[in-house]
Amino acid sequence: MKLKTALDQIIKEAFSQAGIEAAPMAVTEAGKPEFGDYQFNGAMALAKQLGKPPRQIATEIVERIDTTGMISKTEIAGPGFINLWVDPAWIEERLQEAGVDKRLSVQTKSDSIKTVVDYSSPNMAKQMHVGHLRSTIIGDTLARLFTFLGDEVIRQNHIGDWGTQFGMLIAYLEVSGEDAYSSLGDLEQFYKDAKVKFDSDPDFADMAREYVVKLQGGDSHCQTLWQQFIDVSLGHCEAVYETLGIALHREDVRAESSYNNALPSVVEKLQTQGILTESDGAQCVFMEGSEVPLIIRKRDGGFLYATTDLAAIWHRVHELGAKRISYVVDARQAGHFKQVFDAARRAGFVGDDVLLEHVSFGMMLDKSGRPFKTRDGGTVKLIDLLDEAVARAKAMIEERDTQAIEDRESVARIIGIGAVKYAELSVNRESNYIFDWDKMLSFEGNTSLYLQYAYARIQSIFRKYDGSIGGTITLQDPLEVRLGLMLLRFEDVLHGAARESMPHYISSYLYDLTTLFMKFYEQNPILKEEVSDAVRESRLLLADLTARTIKQGLALLGIEVLDRL
Ligand code: ARG
Questions:
Q1: Count of structural domains within the chain
Q2: Which of 158, 258, 308 to mutate to test the pocket of ligand 1 (most atoms within 8 A of CB)?
Q3: Does the N-terminal or the C-terminal CB of the chain have fewer CB atoms within 10 Å?
Q4: How far is the CA of 295 from the centre of ligand 1 (A)?
């Protein structure tokens, strides 16, 4: 149920009946229960425009608000705040509808679009690092969310598989004499060793340089070595996707190298638009108010990361038909994307009907607040990190001893991987976040385990209750009304999260919902004998809706639930 849209509409109608001609303004959720469920604070802003005191405007609006349907009560507070209460009977009806709807009454958008989500996008020369982990988890959530809300999502794994370092790497692959699979077991080490040789052995350095030229010229031997290298490196990434349960596959890979042939025409197009300037022999795009240009072509004729991104934008807009492109990349690349988006717009690659957004995120820090590294300062192997998550979850399960032995492996995976993902998705992506095992694997606080536990607890109510659920929802007290309204907010939350690409809106909501449910469950017994059948059925329906909302919400975050915990 889109509560806010419905409320906005009611206000809009009151406006027109009161003869107020003003741009529609939105209602917001009330800060405290005594201020109602929602608030409309537009009267203050209108005072100047209409030349009337805000309280008078508020009165004129309130008198015309329809209180025969969704809204049951209004009130003017302070200088002109309008407080709104949603009618419990209306909530009951909407809950009843959601109860029999597979999608919990969440509608798909009427204006479905094609959306590209560029995420994960690791570099093949090196080990995938924690920055890519964040991108992978956030991006996958957005892809699921957009899909759920009705957009046609095209996943793009823009892997870095091109550039001068590949000359060195394939030359080293050749001289090391082993096959790619055995020598690339530890990519980080391989890169380091190659670099040492490159820096210390001039003959090797010459060979590396020669291999870059050959590779870029299409030499088949070099291409074969390169292809092997990419295959093995991508295989490492896919092992991480597999463990994480990420829906990225080979067909979603659209590598940097795939844009090679399009690069000269990017330069040409920019030239035609007259936005290229030569500077120090390089072809550049200068931005207003900035002295640092975006380099499109180097003095030696080479293309850059930005050139490829412009080619990719062209492809996404003109060949894939995207109307929104979301780049899930760490905050350090903010300057790059700002410049690339600006150049793409000025060059006419992208019209006003296309949204380009950098879904940026902060760093992952260790418990002491330092960038996440191994003890000796190296890159943490993601697969090891995920294995540790599962191992820790397993140890925890064994200690609790509540799971059948044969289920422990899969339960540990669901808990451990869920915890890593949720820790990531429960903070505002723009801030840095602290990776803390104890916190993320806790049953208390805003964690996946807290939600999974609540879900399992509700399932256990249903296991104990022998009967089928049905009947009607009748909200008994203010707490039940609040829970009911909270359940109905799900759709608004999802649309808000999708609009702003903010997965933590979903997790915050799920946490609030679960906390409220736990409170409700403590105060309002369900299975106890003294509870009447009608009330029991109503409460069971609320419990069922809560469980399904948790399950659906977590599914969008790529996290599974468990029937027992
Ligand atoms: N490969 C890049 C990196 O690891 C990220 C690519 C992001 N996507 C893009 N279209 N530039 O930093």
A1: 3
A2: 158
A3: C
A4: 17
Ligand 1 atom 4 nearest Cα: 122
Mutate to test the pocket of ligand 1, among 118, 120, 121 (most ligand atoms within 8 A of CB): 121
Residue 160 is part of a domain; what is its CATH number? 3.40.50.620
CB 509 within 8 A of CB 499: no
Together in a domain, 217 and 174: yes
Q: In this structure, what is the dihedral angle of CA atoms 229, 235, 241, 247, given to the nearest 10 degrees?
A: 90
Residue 371 domain flag: no
CATH number at residue 60: 3.30.1360.70
Q: Are residues 120 and 32 in the same domain?
A: no
Domain that holds residue 228: 114-359
Q: Which atom of ligand 1 is nearest to the CA of 305?
A: 11
Query: What distance in angstroms lies between residue 311's CA and the mean position of ligand 1's atoms?
Result: 14
Ligand 1: centre distance to CA 408 (Å): 37
Separation of alpha carbons 270 and 265, rounded Å: 8
pLDDT at 180: 75
Provide block-wise average pLDDT over 10 residues at a time, the chain (565 residues).
Answer: 88 90 84 91 87 92 93 94 96 97 95 97 93 96 98 98 94 86 85 95 96 94 95 95 96 97 96 94 92 93 95 98 98 97 96 98 93 85 94 95 90 98 97 94 97 97 89 95 97 97 98 98 95 95 98 98 95
Which atom of ligand 1 lies nearest, measured to the CA of 337?
Answer: 11
Sheet with 38-40, side-by-side order of all strands: 28-29, 38-40, 81-86, 71-77
CA atoms within 13 A on the CB side of 558: 30
Q: Are residues 515 and 423 in the same domain?
A: yes
- 40 and 152 co-located in one domain: no
Q: Where are the alpha helices (H) located in 202-262, listed in sequence order?
A: 202-216, 220-244
Give a yes or no: residue 57 inside a domain: yes
List, for residues 395-444, the tens digit of each pLDDT value. 999 999 888 888 999 999 999 999 999 999 999 999 999 999 999 999 99
Are 494 and 149 spatial neighbours (Cβ–Cβ below 8 Å)? yes
Span from the CA of 506 to the centroid of ligand 1 (angstroms): 26
CATH for 399:
1.10.730.10
What pLDDT is attached to residue 437? 95
347 belongs to a structural domain: yes
| 160 Cα to the center of ligand 1, angstroms | 7
The pLDDT score that the predictor gives to residue 1 is: 65
- Best CA proximity match to 493, nearest among 112, 153, 106, 139: 106
**Which residues form the pocket of ligand 1, taking CB atoms under 6 Å from any ligand atom?**
118, 121-123, 158, 160, 309, 312, 327, 329
Nearest CA to ligand 1 atom 11: 309
Look up residue 1 and give its amino acid.
M
Q: Establish if 369 belongs to a structural domain.
A: no
Q: What is the CA(127)–ligand 1 centre distance, in A?
A: 14
Distance 296 CA to ligand 1 centre (A): 16
331 and 259, same structural domain? yes
